Amino acid sequence: MLRFVITVFFLLLTSQVSAITFTLSEQHVNQMVKMTFPQTQYYNQIKLTFTDPVVTLGSVEDDVAVQVNILAQQDGQTLNASGKMKGLLKYRAERKELQIEKPTLVEFTVLDNTLENSKTLVDAINQMQGKQFPMILLLDFTQLNLGLFGNQLPKRIDIENKHLVIEM
User: Which of 53-57, 78-82, 126-130, 134-138 ranks highest by mean pLDDT?
Assistant: First the structure.
């Protein structure tokens, strides 16, 4: 299914029409986003590894959320959790990236806590709720083989009616 979505996407890129607009459902977006995970970031001396993303496109302009599994590591301590981040969808043409800007942690649930002393780590993560994290990369167009399709990139990517709208 992912190949089909990517093939359709790039076939549309080859059209000679001056502007093409097409729409992707959340399901298709999620299939494409899985190619950029896992991702690792550092925040307040905590190593956070995000896996298994599930993107929810908002009804408000450019509002997006992503549910992820989180592996948090600090000072030899490890914790597995589930978290939800919300932010704004931004297409950065100069970087060829689709990103979540200004993501904030809005939900956090510990899934597996076998550590003897994890209170400090859990407290530190809970203190991050509502605070802004570094950008989250959803899709890196440089990782896609666009040579066959003339290396055309989107001009605009927005969210409309819980769908991703891409203009070429």
Answer: 53-57
Q: Name the pTM for this structure.
A: 0.76
The CA dihedral of 26, 126, 109, 60, to the nearest 10 degrees, is -20
pLDDT in tens, 18-32: 567 778 899 999 998
What pLDDT digit, counting tens, does each position of 137-150 carry?
888 877 765 444 45
The phi, psi pair for 160, rounded to 5°, reads -140, 125
Task: For residue 42, give the 3-state DSSP assignment.
Answer: strand
Query: Which residues are 54's β-sheet partners?
Result: 67
Report the alpha-carbon distance of residue 68 to residue 83 in Å, rounded.
5
**Which residue carries 């806590």 as its tokens?**
113
- In sequence order, the 6+-apart residues with CB closer than 8 A to the CB of 58 are 64, 65, 159, 162
Alpha helix positions (H), the chain: 2-13, 26-33, 119-128
- For residue 134, say if its preceding peptide bond is cis, omega within 30 degrees of 0: no
Closest of 43, 49, 1, 44 to residue 24, by C-alpha: 1
